Amino acid sequence: MRLALAQLNTLVGDLAGNxxxxxxAARQANRNHADLLITPELSLWGYPPRDLxxxxxxxxxxxxxLDGLCQALAREQLHLSILIGAVEPTGDGFRPALYNxxxxxxxxxxxxxxRKQLLPSYDVFDERRYFRPGDEPCLLSxxxxxxxxxxxxxxxxxxxxxxxxxxxxxxxxxxxxAEQPDLMxxxxxxxxxxxxxxxxxxxxxxxAQRLGCPVVYLNQVGGNDELVFDGAxxxxxxxxxxxxxxxxxxxxxxxxxxxxxxxxxxASTSASQLxxxxxxxxxxxxxxxxxxxxxxxxxxxxxxxxxxxxxxGIDSALVAVIAAAxxxxxxxxxxxxxxxxxxxxxxxxxxxxxxxxGLTTSTLPIQGVMEAFDPALEPxxxxxxxxxxxxxxxxxxxGTLLMAVANQQxxxxxxxxxxxxxxxxxxTLYGDMNGGLAxxxxxxKTSVFALCDWIDSAQASACRASFDLPHQGDLIGEExxxxxxxxxxxxxxxxxxxxxxxxxxxxxxxxMIEDRxxxxxxxxDGADPVLVxxxxxxxxxxxxxxxxxxPLLKVSPQAFGSGWRLPIASS
Amino acid sequence: MRLALAQLNTLVGDLAGNxxxxxxAARQANRNHADLLITPELSLWGYPPRDLxxxxxxxxxxxxxLDGLCQALAREQLHLSILIGAVEPTGDGFRPALYNxxxxxxxxxxxxxxRKQLLPSYDVFDERRYFRPGDEPCLLSxxxxxxxxxxxxxxxxxxxxxxxxxxxxxxxxxxxxAEQPDLMxxxxxxxxxxxxxxxxxxxxxxxAQRLGCPVVYLNQVGGNDELVFDGAxxxxxxxxxxxxxxxxxxxxxxxxxxxxxxxxxxASTSASQLxxxxxxxxxxxxxxxxxxxxxxxxxxxxxxxxxxxxxxGIDSALVAVIAAAxxxxxxxxxxxxxxxxxxxxxxxxxxxxxxxxGLTTSTLPIQGVMEAFDPALEPxxxxxxxxxxxxxxxxxxxGTLLMAVANQQxxxxxxxxxxxxxxxxxxTLYGDMNGGLAxxxxxxKTSVFALCDWIDSAQASACRASFDLPHQGDLIGEExxxxxxxxxxxxxxxxxxxxxxxxxxxxxxxxMIEDRxxxxxxxxDGADPVLVxxxxxxxxxxxxxxxxxxPLLKVSPQAFGSGWRLPIASS
Lengths: 571, 571
What we know:
Chain A has helices at residues 15-31, 56-75, 127-130, 160-163, 172-177, 196-211, 282-300, 314-327, 344-357, 367-381, 387-409, 419-424, 445-455, 461-466, 478-482, 495-498, 502-513, 519-524, 529-541, 543-547; strands at 2-7, 36-38, 81-89, 98-106, 109-115, 138-141, 147-152, 183-188, 215-219, 221-224, 227-230, 234-236, 242-245, 252-257, 306-309, 332-336, 360-363, 412-415, 437-438. Chain A is built from 20 helices and 19 strands. Chain A is of the alpha/beta class.
């Protein structure tokens, strides 16, 4: 039996368009003589559909799309079955009103064949808002006698020892053991975070060994708002050895043959083990995920071009490189907006980077606008703004210039702030936080340095070339990578005037954010009590800024954004 | 048996402070000879605690606080028991790791006595993110022989015919019928929306009749970020007639005696039925809810003073009145920021309103800053900004002035936009959307008019006086209430140049937002197809703005904010 795995990049909510992509994949799978085409979780909807699932008429539209697919299979004589991720109404009038389901589509008709049993409602996931859990193992018996166990994404995440805690509820893999399936398929929509690829491999391998059969793990690919799905679908045999690996960060369609011999779990393993994914270098994978996230958000929002402010610092330099890789340097404009406090070095560094990348730049000095604000504010302040107010004002002038250019020229403004800044509030709301997408908002400053070092390394050369970036020599450049970080909002300002060194700061922030550890534990573990209290206070007080921050590309297990839900007015 | 109902206003996450408030209520209840003190759902935490519940050490802290309360009862010889809303760890290592529980606290110790069975995970609620459902009826038998059925908030919301759909799961009220309780208590944290007070009354009355016993409905009060809890707790007898009514929008502590005769459901009903709540006028209640929301958000965030921009239009006028009622006119500053396109009428109207209210004002003309931006943008745009870009620029200049003053003077900036604008994107991100709290962001423009008409009516006089507002004659004024809405961002601009009349627009928006109805249904129902498509397109395209909007006070069943979760890049 021949399987085709369609690792699709869908547009959320576009049932008709996604159905068309599935049909296109079916045509190709048919040409490749596949018997069964597999698509990702909720492939008809794109994941996550969020509150689009509450639009009753959209749910009703789904039936017509599935009917149309059946008719197309018949009309075009495509002799294969398709597993499609879709919703199934519970029909009993209670809320939530849907199951997260798999339907089997054939020329003769379609029917639901599986319901998701473990519904993630943690981090960025809200599945209990929309779905009721299924309560039975899902076994699909095909006319050819092959018995397929079906699970949906979280249904595979059942081993606390691998993943660190699991959802309460049934073990959908265990429930399949008694059914002795010939194959288990997991339809997934699993967003990237750095720890995920290895985890998915381990969970699938373990399930294969428990069930004594191969496992197909099929993930969605593409960026949907803050989430980037890296794809990297694969097949493991009954011993858990990789038999097929689809690419990371791109659409892919591959076929794989389930042979009878595979079922005994012994003789089948290929001698040549495949690598876990295309990219074993975590920094390369991170780079490619960010590029995919920027490209998809920009294009799926209807933009062709993007804009950013280029300060000469490392954050905006990294965003410029990612944006050029995502959209082509010819589609990226950069504004240099020097103030009287900007160093000549920063201006030179920004210009040199733009030249290396081939970006269009304009230089807009802000002194004239700064000088106009002082008398404008005089009636309220009785003088010119001072201190942090004056610093914020510069940032907001730049943010306003960026938005004016983006509005007039129809570009998406990219935000260049990093996670360390967002954590402690070292950023200006309505200023440098302006933008439609925060590209590196989930990268601590130390990760920004590491990624830039990698970009300038020889190891990145092939990756840079694959994105039509200059691939020889430095791209970011030592001047930018090695200088002390500074916001340059007052003379000779350095980040280190206000914040501890980034390795120390990021270490504390990781414990507070990723591990949600309290000040007292950090102090008990030996951290400086004064520093810990100060950073914890900054983290809490910046919540109001994060609430109004641009969507940011999640690449860590705990990003700010929809998976971080803290009250503002609280103790 | 004498019950005390403590309608508390807690600070989210402040377990120690909230515990102290409960102890203070216990002292007062003891003075009033109460046997049992009842506090709201999660009263030790404040509702909603959100991701504070994921901080393991905070959960552990709870035990020490409860121990301390027991010791205080013993030390102070307070001879009463307390029902406290708290969390109960499941202890099995799976996620979610908590129950939403009730603990009984006495001088001799404390113990969990109830677990919430129906966990709301719709609209603004995410309880499945944190809690596992309880699965059994909760009956508390006191030493004096009284048998109390315990339910927590949503556990009472079990009649689809009253509330329009219900959660799948058990009926916790039905499960208590066989237990024949003498009393049912519902500990609630039910945020205000206009339909809620009558619904709560109906649900409690129905439960009383089903159980044949009185029902105590005890709600939290106070503003917590976007949610405003209106309190309005009450007791109904076994026939569903009101026996006690606590106030709306304020802390309250009342005692009520459960007599044996009440249990037979016949002879007990007082002849004098109480009114459903202090305020039967929905507009008065709406006003008081908004005032409470502004006051609590401001103070719980640590501010004493607030700032707003006063345009002479009706939205900022309404926000100014609400803010003055919430914080006192002496704590409100207003900026007038006329441009060359501002009419003299608007400036006069804004000044006259500020005078009537007694606000501090400053006038900051923006022409100078506007003129400075044109040459600053020239290198990028090759000329001055035009069209919508120029309009947005004026709004962002004003937003930047407001933030500079708020930063320098330590005020909370209040946002003045309404729901109609937020819906169609008739507002400027990083401009007039700037602020820490969107006071009327859940009021359609037609509701803004209605509320302002009420404020200027004779019916509002007593309410205005209660907030130390001028209570005679017009406060908003006819000039502001009756003039055609205009953003005044270009000469002679009117909202009606860009948008349909507000009654028509708001009617369509209500169907699209509150009912999540599609364009095709609206058109089938007779709406103008071109208009419907245009408004639906605007609604969708403004999602990116709403994602970065300030928290807004929810007063409707479907507000923008945390209960509105749509993708941005979608179809």
